[in-house]
Amino acid sequence: MNMKLSKQTIAILSNYSDINQSILVKQGNKLRTISVMKNILAEAEVEEEFPKDFAIYDLPQFLKVLRLHQDPELDFKEDNYVTIREGRNRSRYFFADPNVIVSPPEKQLNLPSEDITFQFNQNHLSQLLQAANTLDLPDLAVIGSSGVVRLSVRDKKNDTSNDHSIVVGETDKEFSFNFKVENIKILPGNYTVTISSKCLSKFTNTVESQELDYFIALEPDSVYNG
Predict the structure, then answer these.
(1) Distances (CA, A) of 103 to 54, 196, 224
(2) How far apart are CA 73 and CA 4, in angstroms?
(3) Cα–Cα distance between 129 and 133 in angstroms, integer?
(4) What are 29-69's pLDDT values in tens digits?
(5) Residue 210 has what pLDDT?
(6) Is 117 exposed, middle or buried (0-12, 13-18, 19+ CB in 10 A)?
(7) Is 158 helix (H, G, I), strand (E, B) or coil?
(8) Phi, psi (5° rounding) for residue 89?
(9) Contact by Cβ (8 Å): 149, 195
(10) How far is CA 138 from CA 128, 135, 150, in A?
């Protein structure tokens, strides 16, 4: 029942801690989380096989405990805590009651329809988020007009808002799918994005060695003219 966590798995857990500060880890090699508001769901397949179900109430704190060790080994032989050790150093971290954790439903989530698909890369994402931060813009829109798909950060409630846009594809449809910038909590990388007009999207990491998906709800004022 001893295991080590890869850098990629720790990066995923760190990303998940931004979505939900608690997590229920299920036996096996899949990690899933959902935001408390239930508008962001993430799921990944990792290289490790977790030997049992366990719940962590304060995931950021748990990650800080891991960082007390340079190359920690996790021992899951006890029922109510994990032992984190390296050489003569040892930390015990107690599990939480799974019933107090907001966790994803067992049923696999699927998009109700697939109306728009495009790709964007890590540079697109970092540039847009940097622009949103610099210009204090709360909204991210996926806009289809004049034959192109644009990602635009803006303040949709302000007609004279500053904005920043990037063209990411072509389309013959007209639409404006709206997200809150604060909900784009995904690991840096290249993604295929599929959007349903039923106000749900799926961000799929395109790195072949990493199965990582995010389902992110759209704002209800999104418009699609397909």
Answers:
(1) 12, 23, 31
(2) 5
(3) 6
(4) 999 999 999 999 999 999 999 999 999 999 999 999 999 99
(5) 83
(6) middle
(7) coil
(8) -90, 140
(9) no
(10) 11, 9, 17
Element (H, E) at 105: none
C-alpha to C-alpha distance for 189 and 225, rounded to whole angstroms: 30
* Cα–Cα dist 144/146, whole Å: 7
Interval 176-202: pLDDT, tens: 999 999 999 999 999 999 999 999 999
> What was the pLDDT predicted at 42?
98
Q: For residue 187, which amino acid is it?
A: L
Taking only the tens place, the pLDDT of each residue in 104-140 is 999 999 999 999 999 999 999 999 999 999 999 999 9
How far apart are alpha carbons 155 and 5 in whole angstroms?
A: 40
Query: Cα angle vertex 106, ends 66, 183, to 5°?
Result: 60
Give, as one character, the DSSP assignment of residue 98. Answer: G
Distance (Å, whole) CA 145 – CA 151 = 11
152-156 own/partner pairs: CB under 8 Å, 24+ apart? 153/128, 153/129, 153/181, 156/221
The length of the chain in residues reads 226
Rounded CA-CA distance 71/54 in Å is: 21
What would the two tokens of residue 120 be?
């964007």
DSSP state of 132: H
Share of the chain above pLDDT 70, in %: 100
Residue 226's pLDDT band, with cuts at 50, 70 and 90, is confident
Given pLDDT bands bounded at 50, 70 and 90, which one contains residue 97?
A: very high
